[in-house]
Structures are given as C-alpha cells and as structure tokens.
Amino acid sequence: MFPNHNQWRSLFPRIAAPGLAALGLLATLGGCGDGESKSMDFAPTCPITHIPSEAADYYLYQGKQTGFKNMVARASILQLQGDCLAAGPKDLKTRIVLRFVIERGPAATANTLTLPWFIAVLHGDRIVNKHVFHHTVSFPANLSTFEDDTKVITVDLPIPPKNVDSDYRFEIGFQLTKDQLEYNQVHLKRAAYQAY
After folding, report:
1. Alpha carbon 52 to chain centroid distance?
2. Which of 113, 132, 134, 138 is CA-nearest to residue 60?
3. What confidence score (pLDDT) does residue 9 get?
4. Is 181 exposed, middle or buried (0-12, 13-18, 19+ CB in 10 A)?
5. Where does the source fall among the domains of life (predicted)?
6. Suppose 13 and one of 32, 47, 157, 168 were both cysteines; which one would form an S-S bond, judging by CB atoms 3.0 to 4.6 Å apart?
7. What pLDDT, on a 0 to 100 scale, did the predictor assign at position 59?
8. In a domain, 77, yes or no
9. DSSP readout, 112-145?
10. How many structural domains comprise the chain?
C-alpha cells in the first residue's frame, strides 16, 4: 500500500475513509469552513478536482464479448460533492463523496457488485499519493438501474488552508483494467457526472 503516513506527514497528503455515508453532510466542493470563524472569513479553497472522461465509466462483461447480452454491469460517476476546511495552520482537510449510477446487465448472476475507484493526489504534474477504494453495492430486486453514494473520504494536505489556489489537485475515477480502459477510449462519450 503506502509507506507509514506518520513518517511522511509533512511531505505527502493523507487519505482516510472514516465510514460516514451521508451525502447531505457535505457542502459543495469549495464550500463551508469550520463554523467557528468570524463572519468575514472565507472557506479555504479546495484543490482542483478532475475526473478524466475515460475513467468516468465502468463496464463489466462476461467473457471477451462486449455485446449487451454479455454485460454484467455498467456504472458511471454521476456526481462529485465535497468540501474543504482548516484542520490546523498547515493542514487542509478535503472531504469527498461520489454518487454512482449503476445498471445491472443481463449477464449478471450475483446480487452484489464491487466498484473499484481511486483518488490520486498530484503536486504539479507528479502523483504524490494514490489510493484505490472498493465500493460494494447490492442490486435491488425491482430495479435494473439505481444510484448509490460512497462513504465520505477525507484527504489531508500539508498546506495552509487559505482561499487561494494551491499546486495540489485531485484526479478521481474508476480503477480500470487495461481492457476496460481501452474499451472506454474506443467508446468514449460525454461523461454524465456533475462536479461543483
């Protein structure tokens, strides 16, 4: 996985999943502060977050054929939400939640699906941290398409929480196999997600 985070505390960001599951807990990305600031204080600026179009969709097929009858499931990143707040003089805390729209395909045999997705933290053009999460959903008995939210993921960046842009940014998307990535690149369409 990653080296001991305490060892690299001053150099690299930390990523954590505290287990909260309510999308409503978060304001939009770049939103609220800690609630204790004076009325004229501004919330710190969140890092720019990008979802590459080729990583915004997840297709799972049975076998090598990619026809509709072989589709186990399809998922897309529908929405990105989060906020930033000060966690110390040199600690910017960012909370992120994704909303997926998931379609069960005719080749699905299991009642659950695990979606791998990632957050990569870039400083300039260099990836300084990446973590892959696994979000498991259960298919509703009476729906072929449904939406589901991830847990709240917290990323701590070792930068002063100010309302100015930083050199850090996030890349977020599905963690795809080589075949899945090539499929998305060939069948690329406009991503359906919303980011604020």
Report:
1. 11
2. 113
3. 33
4. middle
5. Bacteria
6. 157
7. 96
8. yes
9. EEEEEEEEEEEETTEEEEEEEEEEEEE--TT-SE
10. 1
